[in-house]
Amino acid sequence: MKANVGGTDKVLRIVAGVVLLGLGFAGVVPMMVGLIGIIPLATGLMGWCPFYPLLGLNTCPMEKK
Known about the structure:
This protein is mainly alpha-helical. The chain has one domain. It contains four helices and no strands. The chain has helices at 7-26, 31-35, 38-46, 51-55. α1 (7-26) runs antiparallel to α3. The protein is elongated and about 50 Å long. The chain starts with 6 loop residues before the first helix and ends in a 10-residue tail after the last helix.
């Protein structure tokens, strides 16, 4: 798996995942909605999103040769 999630994208995904999980555990949103936060959190931490290749996206900076 080649990384396809860039720096800013990673930070946004991690923050969104933590916020969703926090809201779920705090009872602000239903727990099932909060658990959806696992997906952006995991993809942010791994640096790879399985949907990006399907959509032809890549937010990683280009490698210099």
